[in-house]
Amino acid sequence: MTGGAGPTDPRSREPEARDPEVAAVLDGRDSLRVDDDMVAEAPSAADAARRESLLVRIRKMSVAMRVKLALTGNKEARQVLAHDSVKLVQACVLKNPRFTLEEALAMAKNRSLAGELLRTIADQRDWVRNYSIRLALVQNPKTPLQVALGLLNGIQDRDMRILAKSRNVASVLQSQAKRNILRRDGGGA
Fold this sequence. Notes:
By secondary structure, this protein is an all-alpha fold. It has helices spanning 20-27, 36-39, 45-50, 54-59, 63-72, 75-81, 87-95, 101-109, 115-122, 125-128, 131-139, 145-152, 157-165, 171-184. Helix 5 (63-72) packs parallel to helix 7, helix 8 (101-109) packs parallel to helix 11 and helix 11 packs across helix 12.
């Protein structure tokens, strides 16, 4: 068998929150230990030089370890885990108390992120108050249509005109953007 996750490889199945090891991490009753340099915000240069790259180390971790790291990890670890193939790990990145607006913006722009995670971002009032995040969610084709339509009224005219002509958004969203422009212009084109 060539590289990648095969049918007998535990990475090939989508883990769930009810997996006992993952549930223990989510409940805070696990005994897993994450390396300090992945949790501390400023790892020392000496530690970084001696260790394997962060990406390689994270790939070797079990799902439960990645969930724990997503909940407690530093910015570099969160950036890697935000692109993890497991949705549960990505969702836990959003729950990290040190998760920033800049990271929320990067995830909102990520066109490969699952719609339910984009909905989670849109549900956070503090994040959606940021215009860049709101615009990124509306422009992301994976954002659920109802969420994007709900955010559309908060988009500025300049960006609304771009959305009305964009072929990268749903036709319903494009049509609604055109209607909003006409309404804002007082019925004229």
